[in-house]
Design brief:
Shape: globular
Distance between the termini: 31 Å
Number of strands: 8
Radius of gyration: 20 Å
Structural class: alpha/beta
Number of helices: 17
Length: 365
Amino acid sequence: MRRLALIAALLLAPLAAPRPAWAQPVLNVYNWTDYIDPHVVQRFQQETGIRIRYDVYDSLETLEGKLSAGRSGYDLIVPTSEPTFARLVRAGALLPLDRARIPNWRNLDTGLMARAAVADPGNAHGAIYLWGTVGMGLRLDRIRDIAPDLALDSLDVLLKPENARRLAGCGLAVMDSATDVLPSVLRWLGRDPDSTDPADLRAAEAALLAIRPHLRAIPGSGALLDMLATGEVCAALAYSGDVIQAAARAREAGRGVEIGYAAPAAGPQIFFDMLAIPADAPHPEAAHAFIDFLLRPEVIAAVSSHVRYPNAVPASRPLIAAPVREDSNVYPPEAALARAFVPGTPGPQAERLRSRLWSRFRAGR
């Protein structure tokens, strides 16, 4: 993975502080790829003496597969609020958080936490780590050449077959995540993003299959970030922060690849990635300590500055690097947030329908 060598080096650095008597020797963290500042990990180790073993995944399906088997060995995970976190809450797979061990809980944005509470009544099992929207990653320099008349503030760019046909030569992609793609497609169709109506799901499948011949790839989040940064694709349905990271990498490379992000003007899907502790975590005390550490304004500001995703600690905002905190794609204006929707969690039958739909889309039939 892209930054694992740096993370590994930091995790092997000598620990400067003695380990508290209560602490366990290792904190086992399972997080998204490229989703933390490695220096934050190092700082926690130095302050507490708790060594971190840090593993990564690039899809919710991978995370759920690991957790569903039980006894994963992880102390802290970062599931997205809907549907993975919600399903884990309902299954009793997460430990209720002891807020007495998390004094920095008071720093969290109450409005955002209220939206996350749809998946976790009373916010009993998780704190928001980072959040974002689902929209379009665009290679602006190529699109201007190929389709200068194309409006870029709608999923029409990708989901209208005539547009997909025009742009296919410069590369199109849809991230490999049914849980994040299908609600956005349903919303684009004017349907309920949480619909379980087979007719609505057939319409979403038809829309995806109509553009399937024009897609270069259906990659995981990490691979899609790389494809955008190198200019291999010029339009992709993706996470906002991944696109913003790709834009920064493209600028640093200096090869003339200009990447931009566009959230659907009609209202994007918004997601919250939650800090949560598995019910069978071997070291829950250390996990609580790490959650509290991450909710310090200066710590979570460093994370947001590094990965270019917004956080839910308002006091961190002035501490975030200016290019990140002033980017309206990172921190959307209130009007745009008001139009955003948080998808619900499909029931088992709807989930099976969606899973089969996605398999057919990936296979192109």
